[in-house]
């Protein structure tokens, strides 16, 4: 900006030069075309005024835009910060704006907005609204730039494989192969040959030589899923491969070097397994270079409304989720995590009537709320109870935020994305809705019709 203002001092001189040049050129051209023109002083004066006026006007417009462009951008940014400070003020009461707590809060809010945008841009297939999930994706984005081995932990169905493939596609190896092996799904006696390949005749049935997954992943990423289910003998070979990048086919004699980045995942507690000597400690440390823990869905219920929408779209359904159904989804504990939620959404979509998914009578009469299989649960369906936000402050906050999001999304859906109308439906001021939409990072555009 300072550079532009500095250059701005040259503008009058450039302007004068351009004007004189334009007048001279036009004057000469008209004199050549109409010999009488050169004799008429009035005509020449009129020409001088018209050309210099035109040039000055055009040049001032260009200069003005040139100088004010960065200023506008600066003012826009200042306005955004001002809005965020408004939010902080609302959330923090009468504390002075210089209070370090407010500044911290403000900083957190700014970095949250940025990290949510980053996460969405970097991992478009991964639905992520909650803070814990944003942290997961921030870590994933950081480690993707390196070749470090990653260990992803989390309960079954939390999205470990999705994050692993996201890391690959954001890495320098994205053009290379991404090979996934589920160690728990392959019988122990076949796992080594699957991972390292085998030579012809290495064992009964090995009628031809076959490359292993390490070999196939050369130049790319190997995803070792359920790594905790690997037999100890195979663990030793994997360790060797990780240490020197070499492996030998079963029945082979020559070791070959491969350039493979390993991302491993497990839903088991590897530290306990190490203590019980069922998992090698050296391999645990070798894998755990960069740990990423994905929290279970019940610890990030804010993600549920967006996940429901995501699965409806992914399954090609043009359906609306009734608020009481969404409330049911939000209040359950989901022991099978996102995979289980996806299955339930699919089932509810099949049973939807008039384009709306509603809870089945047996779901409501059974009191299917916080604990899906807990028949003894006496929670009233569709209403948050102490059981749904069992112990701490965080649970209550998370639960309330999910409720707030759900109500706002339903109102936006109903109003076709018109915020003033949605605010009316919710009985709040448009400004208050606007703040909430910002805080919860709801994409209003998604609800706009047409
Ligand atoms: N944040 C998310 N956004 C969208 N879809 C998700 C998300 N997390 C998980 N899924 C979907 O949920 C399903 C289960 O995810 P995934 O297979 O990655 O889980 P996992 O933790 O690897 O499970 P397991 O431990 O059983 O192998 C997949 O269909 C995946 O696409």
Automatic annotation (TrEMBL):
MF terms in GO: ATP binding; sequence-specific DNA binding
Keyword ATP-binding in record: yes
Pfam families: AAA_lid_14 (PF25601), HTH_8 (PF02954), Sigma54_activat (PF00158)
The keyword Transcription regulation belongs to this UniProt entry's keyword annotation: yes
Record InterPro entries: AAA+_ATPase, AAA_lid_NorR, Homeodomain-like_sf, HTH_Fis, P-loop_NTPase, Sigma_54_int, Sigma_54_int_dom_ATP-bd_1, Sigma_54_int_dom_ATP-bd_2
Domain Sigma-54 factor interaction: 126-350
Chain residue ranges for the region called Disordered: 360-393
Domain of life of the organism encoding this protein: Bacteria
TM spans (from-to): 7-25, 45-67
Keywords for this protein: ATP-binding, DNA-binding, Membrane, Nucleotide-binding, Transcription, Transcription regulation, Transmembrane, Transmembrane helix
A biological process term (GO) from this entry: regulation of DNA-templated transcription
PANTHER family, sorted: C4-DICARBOXYLATE TRANSPORT TRANSCRIPTIONAL REGULATORY PROTEIN DCTD, TRANSCRIPTIONAL REGULATORY PROTEIN
Name of the featured protein: Nif-specific regulatory protein
Source organism of the structure: Desulfobaculum xiamenense
